[in-house]
Amino acid sequence: MHLRHFVGKKHADCKSPTPPETKPGKGEFDKVAPYYDHLMRGVPYRDWVDYLQALLKRLGAEPRAVLDLCCGTGRVGSDMRQRGYNAVGVDLSEPMVRGCREQHPPLPAAVMDASFLALKPGLFDLVVSLYDSLNYILEPSLLAKCFADVFETLRPDGLFIFDVNTPRALSTGLFSQDNLRSDDALLYSWKAHWDAKARICRVDMWFKWRTEGRTEEFEETHRQYAYRHREVTAMLAEAGFELIDAYQAYTFRPVTRRSDRAYYIARREH
Questions:
Q1: Residues 39, 159 share a domain
Q2: Residues 93 and 76 in one domain
Q3: Residue 48 pLDDT > 90, yes or no?
Q4: 174 lies in which domain range?
Q5: Which residues contact 186 (CB under 8 A, 6 or more apart)?
Q6: pLDDT tens digits, residue range 76-94?
Q7: Residue 146: closest CA among 6, 1, 20
């Protein structure tokens, strides 16, 4: 599927209450993008796609056309293409999207805001969004808009599978971490700050890339919103989805208050 076949006209003339260039989250991942695959080299992307396929098998679903929403550098979408899916991606960060070309196979991808999707209707059998990408949408009304746009781009009986970090994960300091004692080329130190009133976790990130003859330091600040389970399910219903199930990540066990990451599986019925 070529990109020109799925980008709609409204990508050029979209009118939104919050212009994409000023939205919270714009610029996150831009500085780290050239080093992102190195940073995440230990992340089990293939296991994630194995889990996706297990969910699809459980439903008896055999999607072909797939959208990787908030695709990052395209590791999930590329793996899906390798397995025979006709996958494409969209992401807010242009530097991350450029990284999609470096995958094997490359993932066709476009720069696009998940809460202002500009996609032709009825294109996809499956939309996936993994690695807590949707927590970066900091306003509930915009997540609801995202769900409505995903609904429109799915074909009847199309599936929407995504994960979110739970309030427990974001409020307990799980993202305060560093590797400062390692000999890795990319050093990092992350400090998480939880705002209980706003329900936002802010993570101040410091990085240092060091190779022979070159050292570069940079900082990024990431923010994630803590969506409650009942909020997510209500937004899906409002968008027209049938909620099939919600699981603790990488299991078939139900989501509980102690879950750190939740997977949601929803279907467009009409």
A1: yes
A2: yes
A3: yes
A4: 170-223
A5: 35, 38, 39, 207, 208, 209, 210
A6: 999 999 999 999 999 999 9
A7: 20
**Virtual CA dihedral for 194, 200, 204, 205, nearest 10 degrees?**
120
CATH number reported for the structural domain that contains residue 175 in this entry: 2.20.25
d(C-alpha 26, C-alpha 33), whole Å? 13
Average pLDDT, the chain: 92
| Strand pairing category for 186-195 and 177-178 | antiparallel
Cis check for the bond before 44: say yes or no (omega within 30 of 0): no
Provide the pLDDT for residue 213: 79
**92, 116: one domain:** yes
- Condensed to tens digits (0 to 9), the pLDDT of residues 227-239 reads 999 999 999 999 9
Residues 59-64: contacts with CB under 8 Å, at least 24 apart:
59/159, 59/244, 59/265, 61/125, 61/126, 61/159, 63/124, 63/125, 63/126, 63/158, 63/159, 64/125
Q: What single letter denotes the amino acid at residue 3?
A: L
pLDDT digits (tens, 9 = 90+) for 99-137: 999 999 999 999 999 999 999 999 999 999 999 999 999
Task: List strand residue ranges (DSSP E) for the chain, in order.
Answer: 65-69, 86-91, 109-111, 124-129, 154-165, 177-178, 186-195, 200-211, 214-225, 241-248, 261-268
- Reply yes or no on whether the pLDDT at 22 is more than 60: no
DSSP, collapsed to helix, strand or coil, labels residue 60 as coil
Cα separation values, 246 from 67, 72, 253, 262, Å: 20, 24, 8, 7
Cα separation of 74 and 100, whole Å? Answer: 5
Q: What is the pTM of this model?
A: 0.91
pLDDT at 62: 98
Res 59: pLDDT: 97
3-state class (DSSP) for residue 211: strand
CATH of residue 120's domain is 3.40.50.150
